[in-house]
Amino acid sequence: MNGLTGRWAGVAGPETNSVSSAVGVWPLLAFLADGAAGPAREELTEALGVPAGEAGVAARELLSGMGAMPGLDTALGLWTKRTLELREAWEAGLPAEAHEVLTGDAAADGEALDAWAAKRTGGLVKRMPVTLGDDTEMVLASALALRTRWLRPFRAVPLHSPHWPDRTLLGLRRETLLLDRIGVADTPDGHVTELKVFGTDGIDVHLLLGEEHMMPGQVLGAGVDLLAGRRRVVPGPRLPYGDVGPGLRVVKERSMTPDPPTLDVMTAAFEVSAHHDLLARHELFGLTTARDANHGHFPGISASALAIASARQSATAEFGAEGFRAAAVTAVVSAPGSAPPRLRWITTSLKARFDRPFGFLALHRHSRLVLAAGWVAEPKTF
Questions:
Q1: First-to-last C-alpha distance (Å) of the chain
Q2: Coil, strand or helix: which one is 112?
Q3: What are the C-alpha distances in Å from 378 to residues 154, 269, 381?
Q4: How far is CA 69 from CA 21, 61, 89, in A?
Q5: Closest by alpha carbon to 333, among 57, 80, 115, 22?
Q6: What are phi and psi of 6, to 5 degrees?
Q7: What's the order of all strands across the beta sheet hosting 155-160?
Q8: What is the mean pLDDT of residues 300-312?
Q9: How confident is the model at residue 259 (pLDDT cuts 50, 70, 90)?
């Protein structure tokens, strides 16, 4: 699933805010693969990274595992036409009470789907990303909402950045003695600075700042590689003096007291949202053949010929002084003095500034499963 996160991030542009949740898409693709045949099944298998015959079981295990994670709410829903008969074996593999029936009244059904999306995300996503029509046979959707509070909150301060010279940003600052919260990785595309912000409930956010020439996909892809151990990170305590990574300096400073080394972080608050048309990147999600309405591709779901008419995701994420929250709904439709005092001591300080566009990964600390990934091109204003 993190592999899909990295590949999806690779197609993002640097000019706009973005957020996506591959873990919101993956179970839907898995259930589709479980009922697919022919080339559609092969393409879904490649996108998933697991055999189609194991995909349904893997999706159920994923949903069950995420359901047990504190701070994370997930749901899966299925809506079908009254006349669409599902294969019992396929339907039995879905979570209990997931199946609802479409009335045929597009307005009423749309309201019901929107209500489901809003309820399952705590109001973070208010509308289901679908357009219902007379030819809609089935809607398969997932919802995900996560919230965490920082173990140590930030202070809200004005932030002035040369990248956004005409704006005063909502800056977030804090100091810590835990130097291993930050590190620098050397990747084929350039150096990346990684800051780990720990939250309650085992949900963390990693902020990722690459070199200025790097694209979002390269920065976020590096973050995924770091989670997998494919790239080595030099942690804060082992960094030399000087400019050691993007936005990061290690300096000696005079002090009135013999203070231990500190990590001084300044970043920007952000609130980002995005709407994704998955079929615009059909090859990424294994949906190329499944779009062909001239043939049925899912005989394991129903004896009726079914093809994918639309696949979309709406996602949002907010990073503030106290914590982080994010949500995604995915739907597949089948159709800061004074005079300086005398300073006697020398102390070491790591100064990190995330004051130009950067990426983020929200993840479950223990499994290292990425729940949301995004790019901050326009932070919040102070």
A1: 36
A2: helix
A3: 19, 10, 9
A4: 16, 13, 28
A5: 80
A6: -65, -40
A7: 155-160, 168-176, 262-268, 345-353, 248-255, 242-245
A8: 95
A9: confident
DSSP 3-state of 115: helix
| Tokens coding 197 | 């912000």
Confidence of residue 338 (pLDDT cuts 50, 70, 90): very low
Helix (H, G, I), strand (E, B) or coil at 290: helix
Dig out the tokens for 184 from the structure.
């620098």
Q: Which CATH architecture has domain 19-147+273-321+328-334?
A: 2-Layer Sandwich (3.30)
- For 204, the token pair is 């963390």
Q: How many helices (H) and strands (E) does the chain have?
A: 7, 19
Residue extents of the structural domains in the chain: 19-147+273-321+328-334, 149-269+341-376
The runs of H, that is alpha helices, within the chain are 2-9, 22-34, 38-48, 52-67, 88-92, 106-120, 216-228
Structure tokens at 250: 């290690």
pLDDT 10s digits, 17-37: 999 999 999 999 999 999 999
Question: For the chain, percent helix, then strand, then coil, each to nearest 5?
Answer: 25, 40, 35
Q: Is-contact 13 364, C-beta < 8 A? A: no
Q: Please, what is the angle between helix 52-67 and helix 38-48, to 10°?
A: 40
Q: Tokens 């019901």, residue? A: 112
**Least confident window among 91-100, 239-248, 253-262, 311-320:** 253-262
Q: How many CB atoms lie within 10 A of CB 42?
A: 15
Contact 3, 25 (CB under 8 A): no
Contacts for 327 with CB less than 8 Å, ≥ 6 apart = 121, 122, 124, 125, 143, 144, 145, 146, 315, 316, 317
CA-based nearest residue to 298, from 26, 30, 24, 1? 30
In one-letter notation, the amino acid at residue 32 is: L
Span 149-269+341-376: which CATH code? 2.30.39.10
